[in-house]
Amino acid sequence: MNVNLTDLIAPSFYELHHGIREERHSEYWLKGGRGSTKSTFVSLEILLGMLKDPEANAVVFRRYQNELRDTVFGQFEWSAAKLGIAEELKFQVSPMQIVYLPTGQRIIFKGADNPRKVRSINLGRGYIKYAWFEELDQFAGMEEVRNILQSLFRGEDKQRISFYSYNPPKSGRSWVNQEAKITKPGRLVHHSDYLSVPKEWLGERFLADAEHLRSVNDTAYRHEYLGEEVGTGLEVFTNVELRVIAADERAIFDQIRQGLDFGYAVDPLCFERMHYDKTRRTLYFLDEISGLNLFNREFFQKSKAYHNTLTIADSAEPKSIAELKSMGMRIKGAKKGPDSVEFGIKWLQDLEQIVIDSATNPRAAKEFINYALEQDRNGEIKSRFPDKDNHSIDGARYGCEDDTLAARSQWVKVS
Q: Is 135 part of the annotated catalytic residue set?
């Protein structure tokens, strides 16, 4: 049976298909809205990959075992029929697996709610080339996923590919939304929605439902059908972009700001090095030194490359400032003042963009994405910014103090 893949794969996945066929990446994050056909795409790619490599097997995960039968297992039944290979496959419900009869290759289905079953997978022949985590946002976190992969992808030094498919949760604070923004070698993140899918594949009822929701609740429509992170309304910083800041970009940065928030046993010391583009009102996070139990002398050694640039530090620790200055570091205490915390955060909020390289500034990436207003027991939003998990934010405020003071005086004149 000759099959034209353009009849099965939506146009938004064409380039991705070529990349998978050529094994350009080892991780494929497929996020998107309802009706984007991302799950259909993954099932087709796994079947095609197994036909190409007679030693390849696959394991497919949902968070819970009872979710498998009517979702991913059924998806493979549909895809196999469309590819014209259903008669060559044995679909078995207990234990849940699909066997390719000519070679004995298998697709195994597992729930992540029983980790012991994951470790007990016995293929009989070949190796596990593919792992698919469907509805990734339902898993407990990336640590759980890594633990599973460590059990699966071991042994022979062969190319392994993992797929992660999900509808992005509303909040940028969700672990899966945060993880997808972290740059990592071998990782490709792909976004899709129903608008790139042929209308006849979706049907009039689906399109009518989507259009109705768009007309009555645009925010819900953008989240459910376009797969957007629409937020919960509590996020403090909605202007953050996590991406690699390339060497050629860094080479022309000359407006360097450095801020230091002291800490030791309970709270970490956090040093942030930044570039501020005043014209474009964009703050770039370039480097970070952070950690618990970090003595001033140890921090001094770690930060040697940056000693000639002025660092503005938390003035609540004059002894630490004096000690670092005596060692040869250009450093002074922040001026602070009434409402300096609130104004500094509002200045950061008001920037056009805060660009954070999560590889070099992991604490800043995590804190800026996660920082959110809090609610009281009655569900009312508290008026003050929370004073926790904000060490990189404090470091940024100190480092950009001269800019915020200049902006404050300008705002006062305008008002």
A: yes
Q: How far apart are CA 32 and CA 30, in angstroms?
A: 7
5-224: in CATH 3.40.50.300: yes
Residue 284 CB contacts under 8 Å (≥ 6 apart), including other chains: 245, 249, 253, 274, 275, 276, 277, 355, 356, 357
d(CA 98, CA 172): 36
Cα separation, 78 vs 167, in Å, equals: 21
The predicted pLDDT at position 413 comes to: 46
How far apart (Å, rounded) are the C-alpha atoms in residues 237 and 366? 12
Nearest 5°: CA angle at 342, between 338 and 345?
135
Average pLDDT over residues 195-219: 95
* Residue 414 pLDDT level (bands cut at 50, 70, 90): very low
Given a contact cutoff of 8 angstroms between Cβ atoms, the answer to whether 283 and 240 are in contact is: no
Tell if the pTM clears 0.90, that is, is over it. Answer: no
Element (H, E) at 41: helix 38-52
- What is the reported pLDDT for 382? 84
Residues 6 or more apart whose CB falls under 8 angstroms from that of 413 comprise: none
Asked if 392 and 361 touch (Cβ cutoff 8 Å), the reply is yes
> Who contacts 162 (Cβ-Cβ below 8 Å, separation ≥6)?
26, 27, 28, 130, 131, 132, 133, 149, 153
> Which residues of the chain does CATH 3.30.420.280 include?
240-414
Where in the sequence of the chain do the CATH 3.40.50.300 domains occur?
Answer: 5-224
- Which has the higher per-residue pLDDT, 172 or 215? 215
Q: DSSP strand E in 135-197: where?
A: 161-166, 187-192
Q: Which of the following is catalytic: 67, 134, 135, 317? A: 135
- Tokens standing for 174? 């969700």
At the top level of CATH, the class of 240-414 is alpha beta
